[in-house]
Write a structure and sequence with these properties.
Blueprint: H1 23-34, E1 38-39, H2 40-43, H3 49-54, E2 59-62, H4 88-99, E3 103-108, H5 119-132, E4 137-141, H6 149-157, E5 162-164, H7 174-177, H8 183-196, E6 201-208, H9 214-226, E7 231-236, H10 255-267, E8 272-275, H11 285-291
Parallel strand pairs: 2-3, 3-4, 4-5, 5-6, 6-7, 7-8
Antiparallel strand pairs: 1-2
Helix pairs in contact: 4-5, 5-6, 6-8
């Protein structure tokens, strides 16, 4: 690959986004509030919130809004959760059915306080959605469950259409960027999912801008290809708040840099790659899924 992309000292113009607006945006936010649901779109300060909610889609965040980890890239509040809402799967399924979504993404905070990491709630959400909205495709973006194969199997046995877990950053930066997570554990989650259910569509996401090198990115692509990951998303890291807890952006990759990375990933054996400055793991997930040819 050619030399590393230039460093931009300020946020470049291609990262500007619209403020939330539109009838569909306000309808969706009212529905989320009425059903007492959390969305990762809001909790993580996602730059695509206006676009996604404006077309009536969002990523539902289950298991509360307090994470037992405090990663250096994430705006979700960290703390000690005090409860587990066993009625949440019913409310999630109701929201999906009433909204008429053909595709839904479920993610969660990390719940290291729970013996199964919350995997039973993930599985129950999938089952409830299948009952109330049978035509809806379901993608789950799970935490690592601390490497528990039993927790992993609970989710896989519920048969999501897409099983996702984000590697987030290259190997060298894991300890400084992610709290209580390891590269080996995340790779293990993705590898075991494919080993346990070879037909399962697996997906992961990478952020750039933390100080990684091009060679480190290529090494990651090779490892993801070796464990047969089907879908890779690549996006620009953006510091979510001004807090010192959150890491500074080391470089802004231009759009053509993402195109180059996508080509490199495909050439190394990752079949489906979606890359761009504002791409996030759940961004246009329904379109990414359709591109895999599994939507028929």
């Amino acid at each position: 690959m050619s030399e590393s992309a230039p460093v931009y000292p300020r946020k470049p113009p291609w990262l500007k986004v619209r403020l939330p607006h539109g009838e569909e945006y306000f309808r969706l936010i009212r529905r989320v509030r009425d059903l007492k649901l959390n969305t990762v779109c809001e909790e993580s300060n996602c730059p695509n919130l206006s676009e996604c909610w404006g077309r009536g889609t969002c990523t539902i965040m289950i298991l509360g809004n307090l994470c037992t980890r405090a990663c250096g890239f994430c705006a979700v509040k960290a703390g000690r959760p005090t409860e587990l809402d066993l009625q949440e799967p019913e409310r999630v399924a109701k929201a999906v059915a009433e909204s008429g979504w053909s595709y839904v993404v479920l993610t969660s905070v990390a719940r290291d306080d729970l013996a199964d990491g919350g995997s039973a709630i993930f599985a129950e959400c999938i089952r409830r959605i299948r009952e109330s909205a049978r035509g809806t495709r379901i993608e789950v973006l799970i935490p690592d469950f601390q490497g528990s194969e039993g927790s992993l199997l609970k989710v896989l046995n519920a048969r999501p259409d897409v099983f996702a877990h984000n590697i987030e950053v290259v190997r060298r930066l894991q300890d400084s960027v992610r709290s209580k997570a390891t590269y080996e554990c995340s790779m293990g989650v993705l590898r075991h999912a494919k080993e346990l259910m070879p037909a399962q569509l697996t997906k992961t996401g990478l952020q750039v801008g933390h100080g990684e090198t091009d060679d480190e990115i290529l090494e990651l692509f090779d490892e993801l290809a070796a464990i047969r990951v089907d879908v890779l998303t690549i996006g620009q890291y953006l510091k979510p708040t001004s807090s010192i807890r959150h890491r500074e952006v080391k470089r802004y990759l231009p759009p053509e840099g993402f195109e180059r990375l996508a080509g490199e990933a495909r050439s190394r054996g990752i079949p489906h790659v979606f890359a761009g400055p504002l791409v996030r793991s759940s961004y246009k997930a329904e379109q990414v899924f359709a591109g895999t040819g599994r939507g028929g």
